[in-house]
Amino acid sequence: MTSMENFFNYMTKIIPKDEIVIWFNIHNMYYEKIELYGDIFKSLNYVIADTHMGNEFRETKIILTNEDNKNHFNWCWNKVVEDFQKENIIIGNEGDHKEYLFSFFNDTFYNQSDKKARESINTFLEDIFNVHDDFVKPDLDILTEFYKILQKYVN
Question: How far, in Å, CA of 80 to CA of 48, rounded?
């Protein structure tokens, strides 16, 4: 098999459900926590998209600096942390997870000029965190990375 065929198989082959269960067990991933971490990601995405005011496709035509985007992210992050705390879910306010999430949203939202790509973040997160759908290896890798980065900071 050529490297291109291997790559294609990696990107497109549906992983059988029993192998996903084994994967989750090996990586100590629990369905309830997957759902919780998905809720954190999706809540943050919602607050960011709902409150951001500086995109060229919006009516305001305001162009925000990288510092403005970082400040906006921090405000959104603090709001999400506070909202989850009201539900007795404690998320560490500072750490690698916050930097990871900022990097994710900086690449996929703040610095994304394609409106459709920005609007597809929620669909992407719904798909990644839906344990009832089929997985391909890249999606499972992303889910595992998301899970592990939040696992250290959520109680």
Answer: 10
